[in-house]
């Protein structure tokens, strides 16, 4: 059963919400799920819907067809509205802001209030790698591979993989991938902890991703939110700063009721019941 909340109309992907789990699936296998301007609009709309409704507690992002995504659609680079105006400092400055806008769509994945699980099959190339770096958990199939494709077409990867991969992998490996543009297979990614598990089939991978999402959705949403806040802060700060932040965070969200509900549900061998996160609203959307 899909959530009764109206879902946004999407062209290149499909969004379903069931039992507090959102499933966003890229649905253009004939084009290798490449990233055209419509892709960015769809992704932004889907993330907006998910972030503004408190009933979603975990997001699974998967794909269809042989490959997860071939990255940026090559025809996009030939579009005169996209091509960087590199003949003037004003044009190059505009490119900086243009890239910032694109980067922020992927950053929204990282900053969602809920965990995001990526299910990756086949090629995860270029911009797709930038996107999956924003996930909390990554599952892959045996045939999956990752590639910093940008260097192979004469440019620097610019949507986040060079900034996020050093937080996830040894720097020497990151440099090797960034400088050579080699395909990095799923088993190697598993050995270095970039993916959590590797599966024989896409069906088994997606089933595991949904199972993990359902386990997350059974926990108190506010505690999951707090855990994500603490982990992301610790990634970018010292241990002492992170411990201090943890004190402020716990003081703000502690709930005796949630703890007692968790304990009693375990003792009574039943599902726990927790309130959803409050729906997010932008200040400009409030009624004056």
From TrEMBL:
Database matches in Pfam families: ECH_1
GO BP: fatty acid beta-oxidation
Renumbered residue ranges of the record's region Disordered: 267-288
An example Gene Ontology molecular-function term: isomerase activity
UniProt-listed InterPro entries: ClpP/crotonase-like_dom_sf, Ech1-like, Enoyl-CoA_hydra/iso, Enoyl-CoA_hydra_C
Family to which the UniProt record says this protein belongs: Belongs to the enoyl-CoA hydratase/isomerase family.
Designated name of the protein: Enoyl-CoA hydratase
Species of the source: Comamonas kerstersii
């Amino acid at each position: 059963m899909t959530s009764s909340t109206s879902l946004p109309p999407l062209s290149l992907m499909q969004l379903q919400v069931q039992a507090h789990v959102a499933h966003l699936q890229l649905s253009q296998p004939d084009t290798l799920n490449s990233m055209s301007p419509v892709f960015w609009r769809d992704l932004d709309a889907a993330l907006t819907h998910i972030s503004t409704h408190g009933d979603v507690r975990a997001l699974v992002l998967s794909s269809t067809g042989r490959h997860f995504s071939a990255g940026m659609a090559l025809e996009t680079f030939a579009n005169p509205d996209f091509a960087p105006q590199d003949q003037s400092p004003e044009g190059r400055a505009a490119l900086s802001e243009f890239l910032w806008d694109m980067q922020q769509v992927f950053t929204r994945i990282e900053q969602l209030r809920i965990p995001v699980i990526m299910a990756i099959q086949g090629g995860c190339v270029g911009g797709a790698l930038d996107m999956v770096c924003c996930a909390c958990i990554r599952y892959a199939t045996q045939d999956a591979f990752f590639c910093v494709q940008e260097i192979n077409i004469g440019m620097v990867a610019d949507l986040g993989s060079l900034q996020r991969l050093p937080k996830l992998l040894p720097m020497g490996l990151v440099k090797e991938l960034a400088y050579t543009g080699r395909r990095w297979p799923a088993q190697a990614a598993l050995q270095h902890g970039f993916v959590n598990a590797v599966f024989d089939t896409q069906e088994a991978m997606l089933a595991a991703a949904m199972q993990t999402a359902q386990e997350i959705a059974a926990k108190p949403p506010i505690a999951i939110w707090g855990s994500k806040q603490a982990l992301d802060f610790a990634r970018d700060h010292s241990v002492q700063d992170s411990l201090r932040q943890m004190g402020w965070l716990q003081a703000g969200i502690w709930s005796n009721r949630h703890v007692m509900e968790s304990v009693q549900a375990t003792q009574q061998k039943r599902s726990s019941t927790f309130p959803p996160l409050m729906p997010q609203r932008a200040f400009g959307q409030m009624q004056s």
